[in-house]
């Protein structure tokens, strides 16, 4: 039984429901950010971040910084882009566009590989783009939270390495880390940026990122200074290295409470093999998607291989308005999200199924949500 | 009685000890960042931020963003500085220098008005500097956490307005907001940047800032784009305005738990007149400083009028090493901070007395800390 007060289950694609122990860590009594107990906890958290990315490469570097997932985009733009550098952005929706907007602020010359809403750019067209120009970075939104489209990373990264080996492979993993497989070293990724409040299962407030040695060297060998102070990886790197070596260090004050909560969440996530965690997310996702199909509804992500496993974006029947359905679901104790992709915004809703709601067998909220969705559609006259 | 587990009292100049209710809010169950309950709480928190700055000017704008206090510097640099703009930095120590470093990243041409360690630049020399050049901004570190030096804002801002009315007056209030008086409108300030974990009494993780209408207009009328994505005030402004008007809005995911905790902390801070809060901090500060003096010790901030009321930086006797004293205090359940100003780093310690430790009459930790300091100095042979 949860020790939390009764509340509507938050099944949006982040923030997600939290485990009791994680929320208890959020209320940790005050401690010095440079005291030995917190330094040890922060250091351990950084080491667990390596495990989360299935990485053992000592030249790779985790960063845990107060901020939101969006700050991760600035970490890429401010550090890896110099004015005029070319960036190839694989566009799967709202969040790919946002990432591109951020890169442009730092002077990137952005080229898109676009795809129709609900699908993703395919390897041949991406390869053609890479052959046509030298790109410093290629960015891919692993799961675009606006559409539930999953991008494929393994074959993509192999193709990029063969076609344009200098190009850095950058992943927006905000809605994928801890629910979709990421083998950072094996796939040869150069950066993954994510946030605490999605499948990792820690409340919002932390930007979590992971950079390859090659990416770090790129920052160090810039011709112009890094274009930010707070998002400058070189300001944070000695701090992260010291904390991981259990030495106090200061650049900007971390949040002991959020880091304690992340520590608890990562311990839980790593308590079983990651392969089992990913398989469980796929199993529950399959159940959700089957239920959606049984209700006669279509997903925004059309092809099975393009469908994320931590969320489902669902087209509504023509007769049902999101603005009517969502309040009915909320009254039934289930919080879904509305649409956010501007081309289809009023036509769909988003159902997040990540983290503790998926992994804890005592949590009934996924099944309850499926039942509530059915009941809501019945109430609105779509189902009889 | 506190419901927190027994722990050493954190009496560093931030993070500080937290009230039980604030820590309980940190463990708030999950909620959607765009759901009505959270939107109402965030909106109310923004309105309370106006009250904290004693501001009723509707053109002024509060910002509450996931990040640390340092992010506030970037908000100033990225938004108010264009390449080559002149900034006059009043230098009172480590944090004034850090602020200047940040401004330089965004292209500022920085001029310092320096002062010997433990004092602050004086009005005549500041005025002379303002007369010699057109400065777009002047920055003042209200309390420099590295030295405990308090800067005077009221006469300073009047002088700046008379001498150089176009110059924007920017205050680093990280270690002053909620323990030193700030009358934002009355004094004609243009921006104050602060953080959650000091006198405001909420755990670290939020950058809190307040900008005048004049400052916002300056951002809007830039010749070049704002030099950051995450720290771009124009990205955040409609979001903050919508939340304050109780309308959901999205740019980057806020932290519901941290905002709930800030809401609780601000309600507590505003439950008595701010004048009483400032007077209580002065009363306790006077007690601490008298005890320090009675022990035969000197403060880093030499003159009474330059001494902060939320912290005390204390020179150690020649015979006592900080590296010996601090662990003894820690064993006695009192966490002080070491020195951080590079010219005097090993010679002094810092004692924070802000927030609940000062305001809650049931909290014995300030008196305990004074006693522990005396006992520690005795143990190390300084006092007999």
Automatic annotation (TrEMBL), chains A, B:
Enzyme class name: transferase
Record-level GO cellular component terms: peroxisome
Enzyme Commission number: 2.6.1.44
Matching Pfam families: Aminotran_5
N6-(pyridoxal phosphate)lysine: residues carrying this PTM: 198
Cross-referenced PROSITE patterns: AA_TRANSFER_CLASS_5 (PS00595)
Annotated ranges, domain Aminotransferase class V: 27-341
SUPFAM superfamilies: PLP-dependent transferases (SSF53383)
GO biological process: glycine biosynthetic process, by transamination of glyoxylate
Required cofactor names: pyridoxal 5'-phosphate
Domain of life where this protein originates: Eukaryota
Binding site for substrate: 350
Signal peptide interval: none
GO molecular function, one term: L-serine-pyruvate transaminase activity
Keywords: Aminotransferase, Pyridoxal phosphate, Transferase
Family to which this protein belongs: Belongs to the class-V pyridoxal-phosphate-dependent aminotransferase family.
Name of the protein in its database record: alanine--glyoxylate transaminase
Source organism of this protein record: Zalerion maritima
Lineage: Eukaryota, Fungi, Dikarya, Ascomycota, Pezizomycotina
């Amino acid at each position: 039984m949860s020790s939390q007060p009764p509340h509507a289950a938050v099944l949006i694609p982040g923030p997600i429901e939290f485990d009791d122990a994680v929320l208890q860590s959020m209320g940790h009594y005050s401690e010095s950010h440079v005291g030995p107990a917190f330094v040890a906890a922060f250091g351990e958290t950084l080491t667990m971040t390596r495990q989360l990315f299935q990485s053992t490469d000592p030249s790779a570097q985790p960063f845990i910084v107060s901020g939101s997932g969006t700050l991760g985009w600035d970490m890429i733009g401010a550090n890896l882009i110099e004015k005029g550098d070319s960036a190839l952005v694989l566009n799967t929706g709202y969040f790919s566009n946002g990432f591109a907007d951020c890169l442009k602020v730092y002077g990137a010359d952005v080229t898109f590989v676009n795809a129709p809403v609900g699908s993703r750019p395919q390897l041949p067209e991406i390869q053609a783009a890479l052959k046509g120009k030298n790109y410093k970075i290629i960015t891919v939104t692993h799961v675009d939270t606006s559409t539930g489209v999953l991008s494929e990373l393994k074959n993509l990264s192999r193709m990029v390495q063969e076609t344009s080996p200098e190009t850095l492979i950058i992943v927006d993993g905000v809605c994928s880390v801890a629910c979709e497989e990421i083998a950072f070293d094996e796939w040869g990724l150069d950066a993954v940026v994510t946030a605490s409040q999605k499948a990792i299962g820690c409340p919002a407030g932390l930007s979590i990122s992971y950079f390859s040695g090659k990416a770090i060297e790129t920052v160090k060998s810039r011709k112009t200074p890094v274009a930010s102070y707070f998002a400058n990886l070189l300001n944070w790197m000695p701090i992260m290295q010291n904390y991981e070596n259990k030495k106090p260090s200061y650049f900007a004050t971390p949040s002991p409470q959020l880091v304690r909560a992340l520590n608890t969440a990562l311990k839980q996530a790593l308590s079983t093999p990651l392969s089992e965690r990913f398989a469980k997310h796929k199993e529950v996702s399959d159940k959700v998607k089957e239920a959606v199909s049984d209700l006669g509804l279509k997903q925004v992500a059309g092809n099975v291989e393009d469908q994320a496993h931590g969320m489902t974006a669902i087209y509504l029947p023509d007769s049902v308005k999101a603005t009517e359905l969502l309040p009915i679901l909320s009254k039934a104790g289930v919080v879904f999200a509305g649409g956010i992709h501007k081309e289809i915004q009023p036509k769909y809703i988003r159902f997040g199924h990540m983290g503790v709601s998926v992994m804890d067998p005592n949590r009934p909220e996924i099944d309850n949500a499926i039942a509530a969705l059915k009941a809501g559609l019945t109430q609105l006259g779509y189902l009889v």
